[in-house]
Design goal:
This protein is α/β, with parallel strands linked by helices and 227 residues long. Helices cover 31% and strands 18% of the residues. Helix 3 links the parallel strand 5 and strand 6. The two termini are 34 Å apart. Bound molecules: S-adenosyl-L-homocysteine.
């Protein structure tokens, strides 16, 4: 799976993809993440990518030509399943959206800055708009990194068995059960006995019950979702 991320601050996206699971996914050739510097597509002398808003008001607006040039170039090279704009007014990212995107082949992600991007870029090119939550960040780079991480870890072969995504929170509308590791006794704080007994079916049952209890207590809305 390939991601092309278009950004005016590509440096912000170097570290998130250069470690751990995302780095391994790229080394294994399972995912390819290419970051494009929007400024390279600016045609004016100042290499500017933003301008004053029509109608006045505060904040600058990202202009159409650099985004259009970069998107058109990418589209001439391969077919894209989605062109996603990271935006606080988009649909809120959740595990279901990450699952849907994890079976796609090629995705472009646009990162906004300042007041946002000219509405016509959204009208002409964007197929999906995704928010990472009801708060406003200064740019789309961190949201893009969040989205790519959530999606890539779901692609078969990326996670090893020990870190399988199947039991993660939200995957089955349940939060994850609590987890423990050694030592079994930390200053009197003990690991639940059931986990030490080695009875796998009983442990699975306990984990499921714990997941239901935790979901009831913290996110009852998830339990009612399927009804
Ligand atoms: N004026 C805009 C916010 C602009 S913030 C509004 O009120 O909707 C600048 C850019 O940061 C946005 O264009 C978007 O790409 C990114 N961004 C900020 N918050 C975000 C969020 N919660 N989810 C996804 N992208 C976000």
């Amino acid at each position: 799976m390939r991601f092309d991320i278009i950004s005016v601050l590509p440096g912000l996206l170097e570290s998130p993809f250069a470690h751990s699971i995302l780095q391994r996914a790229q080394k294994k050739g399972i995912s390819e993440i290419v970051v494009h510097n929007l400024r390279d597509y600016a045609t004016n002398k100042q290499k500017s990518v933003d301008d004053y808003p029509y109608g006045g008001g505060s904040g600058m607006v990202m202009t159409i030509p650099p985004f259009a040039a970069c998107i058109e170039k990418l589209k001439s090279e391969r077919e894209y399943d989605e062109i996603i704009f990271m935006s606080p007014d988009g649909e809120t990212l959740n595990q279901a959206i990450a699952n849907q995107l994890s079976i796609k082949k090629n995705i472009i992600i646009l990162c906004g800055h300042y007041k946002g991007i000219d509405q016509r870029i959204r009208d002409i090119y964007v197929t999906r708009e995704i928010s990472i939550g009801d708060y406003v960040l200064s740019g789309g780079e961190l949201p893009a990194a969040v989205l790519v991480d959530a999606v890539v870890r779901l692609i078969p072969g990326v996670l090893s068995d020990e870190t399988s995504a199947l039991s993660d929170s939200f995957q089955d509308d349940l939060l994850d059960a609590p987890v423990y590791t050694r030592p079994a006794d930390w200053n009197g704080h003990k690991v639940p006995d059931i986990l030490l007994g080695g009875n796998t079916p009983e442990i699975e049952k306990w984990r499921h019950e714990q997941a239901i209890e935790r979901t009831k207590a913290r996110r009852p809305d998830l339990l009612n979702r399927g009804e």
